[in-house]
Amino acid sequence: MKKILVLLALLLASKAILAQKTDKALTKELSQIIKDFRGQVGIYVEHLGNGKTVAINADSIFPTASMIKVPIMIGVFNKIDRDSLQYHQDLIYKDSLLYPGEDILGSFKEGATIQLSKVMMLMLTMSDNTASLWLQSLAGGGSRINTWLEEHGYKITRVNSRTPGRAANQALYGWGQTSPSEMADLMKRIYKGELINPVTSERMYRNLTRNFWDTEGLAMVPKNIRTASKNGAVNESRSEVIMVNAPSGDYVYCICTKNNIDQSWGRDNEAKQLLRKVALAIWKHFEPGSKQMTGSMAEHF
Q1: Domain boundaries, the chain
Q2: So what family is this one in (predicted)?
Q3: DSSP, residue by residue, 169-217
Q4: Measured between alpha carbons, how far is 98 from 234 in angstroms, rounded to an integer?
Q5: Is residue 64 within 8 Å of residue 239, measured between CB atoms?
Q6: For residue range 62-82, what is the model confidence (pLDDT) as tens digits?
């Protein structure tokens, strides 16, 4: 009985701590924004200054789509740190690497030379899938990346595609899977210099600040504010993770969607609109005094 009472006390204490960390006002606002969305949504927000968080289905499993390129990037830099690869080493492109689509790297000719650093740029900035699958292989494959994730405390985030034993997960979630809380935590730890080593974390963070796909969440942040991000988009899922170096304090958030009814690809897609609404609500909540216009670019481009 005494042990039960102690466990109960610890449980109540942990709930009290969690309640203190929860940003109730922002949780209420975001819950209202997503309530009519025709699909499933998960959101995790953390203000690095005051420690306040929002967690809405934050530990549920969602498809990563191209957000899996963050773990792939980490896998490559882990091998660089161990001297198995060099960041600026020359690589030789082969036609067998081609992933059909509109990728830049896929337009290269057999035998063309390109530096690993530029393949990394194509993966993160342009979300080039041919580049991404090449780097996944260079990182040692999905299994090696997943081992790193497991060893560093990530229970949900995994590479599924081209990874032995992950066929069932790939059928459910596609290339990769994650949760809003885990993907946001990866971004946070990169920013804070906690992954691999501080110098490597800085290189990874700077690479993530160069996103070509900037018409959803990024468009809701004023143009003079630095951000780092990665998007993911397939027919039934649109998601993104963003770190905002805001005047009142850095904040990170990840919004994931799945089983979306609207699977169109235009600017007015329901999930794309949701990404913009959530991003703007978070910005205004943390920067209530900001008078800078945000979001107008997304209406025209």
Answers
A1: 23-85+127-300
A2: Belongs to the class-A beta-lactamase family.
A3: HHHHHTTEEE-HHHHHHHHHHHHTT-SS-HHHHHHHHHHTT--S--SSG
A4: 19
A5: yes
A6: 999 999 999 999 999 999 999
Q: What is the pTM of this model?
A: 0.92
CATH assignment, 23-85+127-300 = 3.40.710.10
Question: Backbone phi, then psi, for 56, in 5-degree steps?
Answer: -120, 110
Q: Is 110 left (phi over 0), alpha (psi -120 to 50) or beta?
A: beta
35: which residues sit within 8 A by CB, 6+ positions away? none
Structure tokens at 283: 């910005």
Residues 108, 93: Cα–Cα separation, whole Å: 7
- Which residues are CB-neighbours of 3 under 8 A, at least 6 positions away? none
Whether 126 contacts 102, CB under 8 Å: no
User: Quick check: helix, strand or coil at residue 222?
Assistant: coil
